[in-house]
Amino acid sequence: MSGLDPIDDVLASVSGDGYIERLNGKISELMQKLRDGDGAISEEGSGGDPSQPYLSTDHLTEVLTDLVSVDPASFDAAITAYSAASLRLGADQLHDEAVEEVNPDTSAASRVTDYVQKALDTVAGDGTPGDPGWSGASATAFEENFAKFYVGPGQAVVNQRWMINSLQVTMEAHRAVHARARADVEELVDKALEAAGMGDDLSPGGTAEAFVTVVAAVVGVAAAGVGATTAWPIVAAATSGAASILGASEPEEPTKYDLSGEGAYWLFFDIQSAAESIKTARDGREDTIQSTVETLTEKFGQVRAKIVGPEVLDARGGSPIGYQGGEGGLDDDYVDGYHPPA
Amino acid sequence: MAELVAQLALIHEAGASHLPTAAGCYETSRTDVAGVYAPAGETYWSAANSAAASILKDAGQNISDAGDVLRLLAWELAERDGVTSRLLTRTGLKEIPELGRDGWSDGS
Question: Staple partner for A86: which of A164, A236, A258, A272, CB 3.0–4.6 Å?
Answer without folding.
Answer: A164
